[in-house]
């Protein structure tokens, strides 16, 4: 009513500034707030105050943050061995099974799986891992970013089914209480004349997606063993105190492991150097916009992240970019990794190999004669194929004595 009266008066006197008649827009020159007003400074103008914004320098009004923290727990429980399964899982020494169906969707550190891979060395993996037996025979600590990952270690050590015992699996129970049971029964440690046999079960439970390890007899041979669970990237895991790469043993013992996903990290997706990986600190040491925690060359800029041999180490910092070695070892420090070095114990950056037998000249016991096996029967450091004392031995052998006279 007041605006109507004022407009009428203004019309009578020839106008009153920017006061207009009803139905028209009045431009006061002051912007009206659109939506919520941030409670404090808002540098990126996304209506989220900097103090509460997970990307204060980059506008992200939705605050998307998709990297929850993997978590896991380990709890001792009473032992309860299941019925021994009937299906053979894997045989041999340092061997890995073909894919074995779980039989139900199984959630492990937030990801759902439907198959496992069983090793002869007391562990199983849920995710894809390089099928390279050398990766499984020696236990590592939990967690450890090197393969194998997505891991359940029951009593992980260098076991040898060739020396005895069985490794079997089976699906037991009815939905929604089904269980995948994998059993190592009487499997001895490697190179121990069949001694220290291990009998245990790893059980994956449909209900709650928990993991149980039941050690009926897990004797130590004096070496380090590992028991626990580890996530898909080898960055998070859980084990009981003293059971991660330690010399321990267990009898009539069981542990229950549970995994889940917690809260996301502090950085929103649009400004997170590792948007798919929870990190305590969002650091990018080499400035290639890939965070250290997910960078396959964290100390050398490589924004393309090319990794030809898929060993988790980028080509730009891989001492063997075409040969798998996720430890990137270089014992002789010649910048040629052991996995592709033709003399891994003697520095030879030029990799000279004039007889082309894949053994470098500096460590070849016959550098001018191909002998990849480096056979040296007399142990004098000179290979058989070029050792005069070896090659001439048949010619220099003393003559045979004359035959004895024949008796009549």
SSE topology sketch:
Layout: H1 2-13, E1 68-77, E2 87-88, E3 100-108, E4 111-118, E5 123-125, E6 151-156, E7 166-172, E8 179-187, E9 198-205, E10 211-218, E11 226-230, E12 237-238, E13 250-264, H2 388-391, H3 393-396
Structure, explained:
It is a single chain. With 408 residues, the chain is mainly beta. Among the domains are: 71-262, no CATH class; 361-394, no CATH class. It has helices at 2-13, 388-391, 393-396, and strands at residues 68-77, 87-88, 100-108, 111-118, 123-125, 151-156, 166-172, 179-187, 198-205, 211-218, 226-230, 237-238, 250-264. The strands form two sheets. A seven-stranded antiparallel β-sheet has the order 1-13-10-9-8-7-2, with no helix packed on it. Strands 3-4-5-6-11-12 form a six-stranded antiparallel β-sheet, with no helix packed on it. The longest helix is centred in the N-terminal third of the chain and has 12 residues, at 2-13. It is flat. The protein starts with a helix and ends in a 12-residue tail after the last helix.
Query: What gyration radius follows from the Cα positions, in whole Å?
Result: 34 Å
Estimate the helix proportion, in percent.
under 10%
Quote the distance from N terminus to C terminus. Answer: 155 Å
Strands of the widest sheet, in order across it, are 1-13-10-9-8-7-2
User: Outline, from the CA principal axes?
Assistant: flat
Structural class: mainly beta
- Number of helical segments? 3
